[in-house]
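Hi R.,

Here's the chain you asked about this morning:
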Amino acid sequence: MLAAREFLEDKDPKIVSHTALEIFFNITKSWGLKAQEERILLGDPASSTFYKWRNGEGPAISKDTLERISYVMGVYKSLRLLFPTESQANAWPKKENRDFNGESAMNVMLKGSVANLIHVRRYLDGMRE
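And here is the predicted structure, written out as tokens:
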């Protein structure tokens, strides 16, 4: 069985980009994020590129951006598995959390580093075990 990365490498980058971005923007809409917060999660692309992506246009995303989106998707999936309702799952990222030194998971993710996205994703994966 092919790993997701190998599978995606054989696909048209524009199609992969469009699909990944569509999913990303649906998730961030459900979390109530602002454009600047979405840009940070995507790795702070140029404003013009970001708005083209938001409109379903623009250049294909980089591997770094695709990796960032995959972590956001993983966080979203974990939350949907952990909480009984969609509203609870969507509210959790903005709630203060003692395991993040009183910060919300969203504040941790918005520090901009891929490592922070990984940290939140692994935390949630640990909660599911």
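One quick note: The two ends are 24 Å apart (CA to CA).

Cheers,
M.
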